[in-house]
Structure formats: structure tokens, C-alpha cells
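sorry to bug you again but im stuck and you know this stuff better than me. what follows is a protein written twice so to speak, once as letters and once as C-alpha cells for the fold. mainly i need to know what kind of three dimensional shape the backbone takes. anything you notice is useful, everything is just below:
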Amino acid sequence: MTATVGARSDALIEALTAAGLSPESDPRRIAEYSYDASNYRVVPAAVVFPRTEDEVATALAACHRLGVPATARGGGTSMAGNAIGSGLVLDLSRHMNRVLAVDEAAGVVSAEAGAVLTDLRAAVHAATDSRLTFAPDPSSQSRACLGGAIGNDACGNHSVRHGRTADHVEALRLVTADGLRLTATRHGIEATDPREAAATARAEHLTTGLRDLAAEHLAAIRTELGRIPRQVSGYHLRHLLPEEGFDVARSLVGSEGTCAIVTATRMRIVPRAARTGLLVVGYADVVDAARDVPAILPHRPTAVEGVDEVIVATMRSRRGADSVAELPDGRAWLFIELDDDEAATPDAATDSGLEARMAGLADQLVRTGHAMQALVVTDPVARADLWRVREDGAGLSSRLTDPATGRTIESWPGWEDSAVPPERLADYLAEFRELLDQHGLTGVMYGHFGAGCMHIRITFDLRSDAGRAVFRAFCTDAAHLAVRHGGSLSGEHGDGRARSELLPVMYSPEMLGAFDRFARLWDPAGLLAPGGLTATRPLDADLALDGIPDRRHPRDLGLLTSAGGAHPVQACIGVGRCRTSTGGVMCPSFRATGDEKDSTRGRARVLQEVVRGTLPVDDPAVEESLELCLACKACSSDCPTGVDMAAFKSEALHRRYRGRPRPRVHYSLGLLPVWLRATGRIAGPLNAVMSTRLGRAAARVGGVAADRELPRFTSAAELRTELARAPDSVWAVKRGAPTLAPTSASAPATRTSAEVVLFLDSFTRGLRPAVAGAAARVLGSSHTSVACSSGHCCGLTHITTGRLDAARRTLSDTARHLDGIRGPDGEEVPVLVVEPSCAAALRGDLPRLLAETSDAELARRVAARVRSAAEYLGVLAASGRAPAWPGGAPPDRVTVQTHCHEYATFGNRVQRATLTALGVGSVREATGCCGLAGDFGFTAGHEAVADAVAQQALAPALRADPEAPVLADGFSCATQVAHLAARDPRVGRRTGRHLFELLDPDPTDPTPRRQP
């Protein structure tokens, strides 16, 4: 059997290659495309990235000739297993992603199937000056593609007003299973090119067959289909009815790729509201929230979405307390959006009319409904934050933080998409909770309350036989419960591998027979997307967690495993936020290349195969997957499930190179802190040599990119000169001393304790002496006792190059040193680390890497004290102790490049919040990675990606205001600013400055006073 499958795969690859296509079947690519966002894993034979409809037709014709299944894929965000298959996977998102035309007069937009929904919407807004929009907006819209929305009949937050994707389809361009090109319209099916006789004949055959199907099952179609707004399960045969005008295009929506592959579409676009308002209403629980939905719907809301407290707690735990705006009292919340809808009230189109509607609804729900409290949210930033909580629900709810205990809880899809009539939602949820209890499960509930569609993540144990038995039993019982309440197994995610087996619970044998006949009319051989609606697999087959060893297995993979038997790398469930092109920082390498291999998800899937045992950790596939990871750590914050690819890369490098020769750059830049111990004594001659042709050649030998210049090294004298100008309140800590020691016999006794510790990291000491001096002067001017620690290291470069044994030794030494520095009464005092990446290492990597050592508690204690410069100065400002600005006034504006590690570890708003608190008038944030990312941008072979990443956010921000001061606390960020300034005249002659430099009270006084 295996030999037959292998031979067929070889024949497929040979046929595709001969036809001019470029199929890929290497282990890395196969790993990336064996998963989507569902519970399932299906290994394909090959993956192809078609550029045109003709290439899709060529690929399908080859598959049909060889009897090989084919599955179309867009963003790969299917939660039902619709984007994976055993034969050929066709990824349309990489090349077939264009918006073709926007016709405002006709109210339609044409686009290819691989167009990302937010890109499509942005194109409509641009072409119509924001008068029209594309309505379907599922929470995955920033990476989900139009073809997938059609395949699943996606809906989104605003479906309560705008309905499902099917309601917006005007025409579909298709390729059939055997490679013919057809166009489905609102009134039939025709050959895309009338000159193609085979396609014309096929269109005629389908027309006859579909009309006969509808005529023979009129009663069943009319009584069983279209009963509730979110009845997505099964095929949408009601559109074939005479009263629907024989709408073939819309009958194919929701067919999950089993009938034909959609290559391009023409979609309706709708008027965009000029004004909207958000009302957030708090409830005791989700059932009470659901009971108020019937009272809300007459107010014609544009959205009625709900979340519970566990999702909110998880968001705050992962991204900081300020990541979620203030919420009204409650343990569950409805987000109700109203717009300037004149059909609601005559004056609704005015600001006062909209406000009155919101106030009236709030009063009604609190006074006569079940609400505890209601809050009108007017701040745009707060509104965006709240919508992001809802949009990230799928990811956040998969790795939950228990608000009572702080414990992490795993939950999974499988029954995450049921829908019932909105008026029955509360009773359904109440019984659903009872059903969870009966099976010993817990579920977190969120979703489209206004449409009666719930996305429920459940604590299934999919790793054990017993747990999988519970999974099957529960889903079966849940299907019966949903049907009893007049509901649908799926409300927008599709049935796929997760629910197709249960369709007999919902539909009669006649309707199931009609479904099968419909699919066979389109694809008689059953080659398109088998395993879901067709050739249905059991719902507990092909589960990705089946066969995964736990930590008790001999294969201990360090940071890829955890004490509880789970594997952190499997936190990636495929939601795909790392494939977005805007918003947040993750994932800069994917944004540069557009290749799944360079996304956080793609890398996680490869590492999941390592955990599974199908790939060794030192396999070239793993190396290739991780090569362009910048280790920016943005995924640890931006990823809804908290995947920390930088940590996983570190572990993989540790295991790959342990006891083996390493890349040259690991010895040059990877040991930079070690070399910096010596460069202070020879900085003058070293800088002179490195500026010559010989020095540049030596850098190339060390693996440094040809277009990069090594930074200027600091002499010990320069550092002494800078620190000598610090106030007397700043004093030195002797290396290795368990307690603080005064620098001289005349030093006051208070020198044995500190108000704050200034940690001068290796980069600041060896490469940025002016920053070291500025930090000492700023802190010294606002504190009575500043302990200056300048002899230790955070081990960052050891971590990023995978020298984890050395990193642990360095971190242990530093943690013991810092633990001995206390306040006057032995209390713990803040440790301010000047370089943000080093601060992040001591805050995050220190406790993680020492977690299983004797220093674990000490590491946690020290990490809790660590502050970045921006975080600490923000605290000072909040307490009225902000340092004074030189000259008496802050700059009226600044451009800020927040270091990715600071963004991920200390919060994505830390710089903006601190600058605002310090009085800066306008802050322009370059939200994105700078592209240098430690040694990444210096490394030969990374030049193109580093430059492309710099152009994502930093370069545009610099060009937008060439006169504004540039704040770049990170050494890498400041270096990249200088690199761009030297090459792009539109950037201007700019230097990235540290916040301490902007606040330095004595930036030019050269008179030495004292060396701390």
C-alpha cells in the first residue's frame, strides 16, 4: 500500500513538472502543509503554488488522470480540516491574490481566490473613498482568503446585519476536478471560454443535472434547508430552487472545495457606515448575556459579539493589563455595535441620534434585562483593543489563563461552531454547560451571539485513547443537542473532518442522498477535498495529537517539551496571525517573503514533526525552516496562543550544534559580549584596522554581510569619561560581591544599599558609552542612591545562537549578583537594564532557562525586579518623579522604534505610554521589526530579508517625518536607523537615540568628576 502511494506521488510530481509546474515535496514543505487550524493532520503528497487559473487547470487535470486527490488552500485557517488533504495541496494565497477591479457604480468587486479579506476590503475602501466596503469579516480576516470564505460560507462579526458570504456572491470562476474552466452565476453555469467545447458540454450537463436534482427534492430542500441565519452545514441546495432563480453560484458557497476549485470571484460590496458606536455590556455569565439577545436585535445592531472572563484574563496575562480597556462589571460581556442606520430612528445618522440610541439600549438592558452594567466606549484605541480580544478569541481560548489560579489550560476546537436560532441561544448554552459537566469537560464560550453562533473551545484530551473516546461521545451528544434546539452543526467554519460524520443527526436520508448526488455531479471521481463532506472520515481519525509522546518518553527535547507532558511548540494551532501583512510585529520574515516556511506557524509545524519523531532535530528541514527567523520574540506576544519561536529556535540550535562546528557568525557576533571584554583595551587600533579593506575582509570571514559595517568599539577610557560625569548618588558595585560595597573609604554608609540598580549590559558598555553616561546622569539626578552594575551579562547572544549551557551559567552568575543588591532594609529594588533586549532576557529568559535548576526561585525573584528604561521612566512619571527635560520642554514629536524584545516582554505600548507621560506631544511608532534583530541583519545571506523587513515599518516612519528625533533604545534598532540614513536620502541624516540620551541633563559637559 505504501509503495503504491509512493509511486503515485512520484508520478504526480513527474507529471506536474513535465507540465511546467513546480511541485514541492521535501520534508519541510510537507510538514508545513500537513496541518491547518483544526485538530487534524493529513500528510500531502506534494504542494504547488499556481500563478494562474490555467496552472490550476493543468494541476487538476494531472491529478484526475492519475487518480490523485486535490485540495485547495488559502490562508490555511480552517478549523474543520478543510485545508489539508492526502494528495496535492494547491496554495492559492501566494500568487493568486490580486484584487482585479472595483466597480462602485455596479456595487461589485472582482478578486482572485487567494486575496486576503482585509486586503480586499482595503482595496474597496481606496477605490470608493470609503463609501463602500466588503462585508464578511470573520475573525481570521487578516490572513483568511476569499476562496476559503466562499468554501466555508464565512460570516464574521457583522453578519447580524450583512449575513453570510453566500449573500454577497455574484459569480464564481471555477476549475473542475478534471481541469475544465467554468463560471457559475446567479442564474446558471457556463463555460468561462465559450470556445472550449468540453467546458460548454460540461456546463450543459451540470445545468440539466442540477435542475433535475432540485426538482426531485423540492419538499425536502424547502423544509430542511435555510431554517436559521447560520445554517451552514451541508450543501446550500436551496439556491437551486425556482424561487431562488437557479442560483448556481451561491449553491456552491459552503461546498468546502469538494465540487470545484474557485479561482476568482465577483462579489457584492455594500455601503459603509459613516459612524458607529460601541456599547459593552457586562453580565454574570454567558447565559444571561444570551437571554438579552432577542431584546437587542430590534435595535438593528451591526454586531452583537460575546466573550467570557477567561479570554479577557488570558489577553491581560499575555499582553499586559493595559491590553484590554476598562470593562463594565461582569464575568461575560456583549460588544454591541450600532451605526448611523436611518432605518432605526429618523435621526440615527447624526452623532446625537447614535448616542441616544446607545444610551437608550444601555438603559433598557440594565433596567429591564439581565445586564449588570453597561459602558459606552468612545475612545478609538480602546474600541480597537476590545475588538482584538474578540478577533483573537480562537487563539486566546486555546491556551487559557485561569483568572483564579493563573494556571494555563489547553482547549481545542471540534465543537466550536454550532449555531441555533438566537431566541433559543440561552437555553442551548445552559444545556450545553450541563453536557460539558456530564463528560467532565470545561468549555470557554465566545462568538456571534446576535446570530446564535457560538465558538466554544473545550478541554478535550486528544492525546489518549480515553480522551479521544470522550471527544467522540461528546461531539455526538452535542450534535443531538444542537438539532433539538433547531440548530446547525456548523455556523460558518464548515463541517469538514470535524462534523461531516454527524450530518445524519441533522438531516434526513433523502437530504443526505441529495447532498451526495450534488457532489457527484460536480466531481464524479470524488477527488476534490475528500475526507470531509465527501469520502467522510471519522471525526476522531487523523487527529494531530494522536501518537505524540509525552515527556516521560525518552526523547526529552528541552524547551520543546514541558513538565506536564504537553509540548509548548504545539501551542501553535494554526490560527495564522503570523501570516498577516499589517498590525503588530509578527511575523517579519513572512511579511518579507510571503512564504509559509517563513511564518511562525510554518516553523512550529516543522518542530511539531520533531516532537512527533518524524524529523530529527538536526535534519536540514529544521535548519532551513529556522534560518530566516529573526528571533524577534514578537510571536510570544502577538501570537494569540503565545508561541515563542525565538525560544524554540534557541533549543533547536542548541541540539543541532552541541559538540559540532558552528556557523562562523556564531563565533564572531555570537560571542560578541565575550570579545567586548577585551575590545575596551584595544579599541583604538581595532577600530582603525576594521575600517580598512583588511578589516572588512576579516569581517566577511567571520560571516558578516558585505553591506554591513561593524559598530565602533568603545575604549575603556571613553566609558570611564562618560561615567565620571555621573552625580555622586551613582556608585559602583564590585563584581562578585554578595552585597554592595562603597567605592572609597570616604563613601557614605548608604553606599551599601540602593534605591535602584542601573545594569550596564555588555552592548551598552562596549558599544554605546554615551548611553551609559546618560543613563547614570538621568537616574543619578532623580535618586539618592543608584547602584551601577557594569560587570555582568544577560547571556543574550548565547541564547540566540543556542549555547544554552553557557547561557545558563551566565544567567546564574548574573542572577546571584543582582539578588545581592538590595534596598536599605534588605528589600528588593528595581533593576533597570539599559539595553531593552538584555532587559527582556533577564525578565523572560532568566526564569525560563533556570526553571529546573537550584537557582529557579532566585531567578524568578530577580526577573520580577527587571525593568526596561521606558517601563521604569514611565513609573517615575506616574509617581510625579519624572526627570526634567533638558531645556525645560519635551520635544513636540518623536519617531519611535520599539525594540521587538521590549515590545514582546514589556508591552506593546510601553514606549508610547512613557513618552506621553513625559509630555511628548506626538508619537509616531514604527510598529514592526527593524530588520537587524541582533546578529540577524549582520549575517551574510540575510541581507535581502533584513532590508525588506526594515521597509515594513521603520523606513516608512523615518521618511514620513525626516526632522523628528528618532528614539531607538535598542542598539540594533539604532544601528539600523544609521544604516538606512546612509542609504536613503529621504530618511535624512538621522541617528537613533536612547531615551536616556534625550533626557540627559548634561550631554556635553566634558569635565570628568568621578568614575562610578
Notes: The chain is about 40% helix and 10% strand.
